[in-house]
Amino acid sequence: MIVCVQELGMTTERIEVRLEPEQRRRLVEMAERDRATISEMIRRMIDETYDAQMHERRMAAAKRLVTREIEDVPDPDELSRQLAEAHGPVELYQ
């Protein structure tokens, strides 16, 4: 069940989450230690988990880029010839 709520200009959604008793105990302990509400703790955990996953994905993408083979770029005259062959001659300055 999801219910939208607007308080103090901020729209939030209320969701129902089922927790094991031990999970709830841990969550309450963490909230008390941080002087935060349970809702705030859950929002923080979601944000931290999302940020960590995105960081991992970016790092994996960067590693893939680093290991890619890069072809040699031809000299400007050869590149111009290849482009003219592929797309026809083009006047750069008209």
Structure notes:
There is one protein chain. By secondary structure, the chain is of the alpha+beta class. It has one domain (2-68). It has helices at residues 21-34, 38-66, 76-87, and strands at residues 2-7, 10-15. A two-stranded antiparallel ribbon has the order 1-2. The mean pLDDT is 87.
Q: SSE layout and pairings?
A:
Blueprint: E1 2-7, E2 10-15, H1 21-34, H2 38-66, H3 76-87
Antiparallel strand pairs: 1-2
Helix pairs in contact: 1-2
Major β-sheet annotation: 2 strands, antiparallel
What is the molecular shape?
A: elongated
- Integer average pLDDT: 87
Give me the oligomer status: single chain
| Beta-strand segment tally | 2
Q: Briefly, what is this?
A:
The chain has 94 residues and is α+β, with helices and mostly antiparallel strands. It has helices at residues 21-34, 38-66, 76-87, and strands at residues 2-7, 10-15.
What features would you highlight for this structure?
about 90 residues, alpha+beta, two-stranded antiparallel ribbon, 2 strands, elongated
